[in-house]
Amino acid sequence: MGILSAILALHSIMMGKIAKTFRGNSKGQTLIEVLIALAILGIVVVAFMTALTTASRAIIVADEHTTAESLARSELEYVKSQNYEVTYDKIDLSGYPNYSIRSADRDGNIVDAITGVPWNPDSGIPSNDDKGIQKITVIIYHHANEVLKLEDYKVDRRVKRHIEPRA
What we know:
CATH topology of the domain at 56-155: Pantoate--beta-alanine Ligase, Chain: A,domain 2
Number of helices: 2
Distance between the termini: 109 Å
CATH architecture of the domain at 56-155: 2-Layer Sandwich
Shape: rod-shaped
Largest sheet: 7 strands, antiparallel
Structural class: alpha+beta
C-alpha cells in the first residue's frame, strides 16, 4: 500500500497547487496564460485594423462620390447658362486631376463632348426634330471608372410652346 499512499499524496499536492493557482496566490504567469493573452490581443488588433481599413476606404469612396456630384452639378448648371446648342462647353477640370466629364448621345453611346439630345416630353424618348427641349447627360469618371451619371433637361426659352394639360 506504499505506492497507493504515495500516489494519493502526490495527487493532493497537485490539487493544492491547482487550487492555489485559481485562488490567485500563484507567484507568476504560466506559459499557457501568456499565449492565451497574446492570442486575444492579436484577435483584437486584427479586428481593429480591419475596421480602420474599411473606414478609410469608405471615406475615400465618399470623397470621390461627393467630388463627382459637385462636378456633375456644376457642369449641368454651366450647360444651362449657355446658349441653346447641340454641343456645349465643359467646365475646367484642371483643379481635379484624374477626373473627366463625358456625355451620352441619342443612341446612348458615351461621347467626349457634352451633347443635348432633342427630347419629346410626351413620349419620353429622343425626338427626331428639336422641339425646344434637350436631355443632357453628364457622366463623371475618376481614373477611367464611371463614378456618377446625372441627367437633366435644357429648355430653349426662345421657343413658344403650347402645353396641353394632361388628362
